[in-house]
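Reading a protein record of the kind used here takes only a little practice. To see the layout at work, look at the sequence and tokens printed below.
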Amino acid sequence: MFSFKNLLSALSLVALVHALPAKPIQRRTGFGSMCSTTQFNLSNSVPADFNFTQPNTTFPTFVALSVGTQNYTCGDDGTWSPIGAITELYDISCIPQEEHANFTTMIADMWENSPNTWTSEDIVLSTEAANGPTALGMHYWISDPNNATSGKIFAKWDFGMSRMMEVTDMNTAFVVCSETDVVPDPINPVLNSAWLYEPVLYVDGQKDGQLADQVYRFNSNGGSAPNTTCRANFDFLQVKSTLNFWFYGGAWVNTTSSS
């Protein structure tokens, strides 16, 4: 049984840099990624037959590990209905792309084998309190910014409590996106959440956040609701989830060092 300290240690800077054979660190400037992301290529991680909308820029602005839970409530029909997620995001730009999937699975195994008394909120609070160099921020969901009564929810990535807590313009520290491309996980779609392409959401003709213009979700480990019945409008479920997000474009696209 892993301890909570072991899990957090695996997410620390030392583990991220030394757990796998990485190239020498080439740091980015300001609030950007810990290492340059110019070497990362989405086509090497996402199969071509997924037909995802292509990135508007050559390389990502941020590459992140997401650790937390996918959340569900019981719908009127007695089946699980998604109501978003709560996860902590970690910078994995110093790990070679070819090792991202294996590293994500390693962290997922540690998270899955941790006691059920440890929640995604525990990971978030512990990481934010430590505010280590790998911490990027939080991922969670919000009500429809265009229509509060629509019942829809949208994904938000918020770096304002970690990596970018000191930025002058907080609009550059978050982004809200919609889902347009959804593909079942290619390994185990029953257990693992779908792979997604998520473009920035527009509110009153303006981008809702400037952290990124496009977000891709892949390398999913867990996160899908079980195929079981539940008590309508009563039961609540959190399913452990570990995966990767890549962020393209946005206000920080020019912080990448090509050296």
Notes: Residues 4-255 form one domain. The chain has a mean pLDDT of 87. Helices lie at 4-10, 13-18, 100-112, 120-130. The chain has one domain: 4-255.
